[in-house]
Amino acid sequence: MLALTASPSTFDFGTNVTGDIYFVSDWGSFPEAGWNDFPVIVINWWLEGLARLDDATSSSELLSFMDGPYSIRADLRSDYEVDLTYLHRDRVVGRAAPIPLQTLIDLVRAAGLSAVVACDKAGWSSQDLMSLRRRLLPRQDADLST
């Protein structure tokens, strides 16, 4: 079991969107339950890395959090599943059971869509939000805030 929690009810907007974003698996929460970071920015990064795994231009990607030395290494297996290793700096602190790559992509995309909808509803706009919107909704106009 793997879930990605990105809680729009915790989002705040200054220069960038901040709010809770963390993974939950049988191993536990990572980095921790209620982890506050920059969800729009990191989701964008993660989708970029996952796209490289999906098109096989990479076999390993680091899904980094922006606030703190935490990341998840996603290693592509031959069966299109990914092994997820939780890292604090370069030290392994946990592992999640292998999951299909598409499941991980879907979790991150769903969190991204939720973030875009919440930010649009609040009337927030930023370059990072525009970039995430374009990545998630490539066939629509880049400026969907109007």
How would you describe this structure to a colleague?
This protein is α+β, with helices and mostly antiparallel strands and 146 residues long. The protein has one domain (2-136). The protein has helices at 39-54, 101-122, 127-136; strands spanning 2-6, 12-13, 17-25, 28-30, 36-37, 60-64, 70-76, 81-88, 91-100. Helix 1 packs antiparallel against helix 2 (101-122) and helix 1 (39-54) runs parallel beside helix 3 (127-136). Residues 141-146 have low confidence and may be disordered.
Number of domains: 1
Round the mean pLDDT to the nearest integer and report it. Answer: 93
Radius of gyration: 15 Å
Level of helix content? 25-40%
> What's the total count of β strands?
9
Order of helices and strands: EEEEEHEEEEHH
Shape: globular
Number of helical regions: 3
- Unreliable segments (pLDDT under 50, ≥5 consecutive)? 141-146
Which class best fits the helix and strand makeup?
alpha+beta
